[in-house]
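Continuing the batch. This is chain 6 of the set; chains 1 through 5 are on the previous pages. Same settings as before, nothing changed between runs. Recording input and output for traceability.
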Amino acid sequence: MLLGGDRGGSAVFDLGSILFGALLIAGLWTPVAGTVVAIAAIWMGFAGRLTLFPCIFVGILGAALALLGPGAFSLDAWFYGWKRIDLSAPKHSRDAAE
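Output for chain 6:
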């Protein structure tokens, strides 16, 4: 609708777009929602239902959000906390050796 004219999409796709867009804005299930948005946008672009370049742009943004994950003030961070991956060498404790 933003590009004007009838795009021939279904109501299910429209509702899915609203749902996954809201999940991305709220920061809930960010990797899943970003992946679904990226796949759906690229699919709609190559299916010929929408203009290709805006679909590729939205697909790239969805993939970037999926890879970056949730932000500091997202619901994912609130519910599940921060995850930290420590790549330094493992430290052996003296208690385990005794």
